[in-house]
Design a protein that fits this description.
The protein has one domain: TIM Barrel. By secondary structure, it is of the alpha/beta class. It is globular, with a radius of gyration of 16 Å.
């Protein structure tokens, strides 16, 4: 992974994918979670994967998915990595990594210092930790709601597992986020949308430009 990488998550259209590639994003996220407004069907994923080719990394986002869905989506999306964004335990994370022989990213919800420390339990199980903002209790979605958290909490992270920052990142605040956290990867979804689930090609370009300039 480059010194500072960018992931545009929740891409579901060719136009948004092209914009991410043109803006030099390193990864894009295909969401395989039906309740999400950014959900991509197993029918539509192959066309996006083929369009991406090897120009950008393909990361599939899953929420407590079973092996059947993982297997189908990995094939449909020609995935380079699997992102687990639910309540997956270290044991389950390690199982997914061993079964599918792909890098596994584990998203952890953060609202307090103890949430950052949870990453230690995933060492050896996950290949990458994504610190994201905790969503309100009872929310149907585990992320993608435009929420941020206290970025200074990440100063407590001393783990060996590579990591990235998500949660409410926009073209306007990504520079500050980088200065506070020095995050090796920045992941955005709602922050580059004009409406819920609708990616804005200009905001994608602006986000990547802002992140690259810090």
């Amino acid at each position: 992974m480059p010194d500072r990488a960018i992931k545009i998550c929740g891409i579901s259209t060719p136009e948004a994918l092209d914009a991410a590639i043109a803006a030099r994003a390193d990864h894009f996220g295909l969401v395989f979670f039906a309740p999400s407004p950014r959900n991509v069907s197993l029918r539509d994923a192959p066309a996006l994967a083929a369009r991406a080719g090897t120009r950008i990394g393909k990361v599939g986002l899953f929420v407590d998915a079973d092996d059947a869905l993982l297997a189908q989506a990995i094939t449909a999306g020609q995935l380079d990595a699997v992102q687990l964004h639910g309540s997956e335990t270290p044991t389950r994370t390690a199982e997914v990594k061993a079964r599918f022989n792909l890098p596994v990213w584990k998203a952890l919800a953060v609202s307090a210092a103890g949430d950052v420390q949870r990453a230690d339990a995933y060492q050896g199980a996950a290949d990458f930790i994504l610190f994201d903002a905790r969503t309100p209790k009872g929310s149907a979605l585990p992320g993608g709601m435009g929420l941020t958290f206290d970025w200074s909490l990440l100063s407590a992270y001393r783990g060996a597992t590579p990591w990235g920052l998500a949660g409410g990142l926009t073209p306007d605040n990504v520079g500050e986020a980088i200065r506070i956290t020095n995050a090796p990867l920045l992941d955005t979804s709602s922050g580059v949308e004009s409406a819920l689930g609708v990616k804005d090609v200009d905001r994608i370009a602006a986000f990547c430009k802002a992140a690259h300039e810090v």
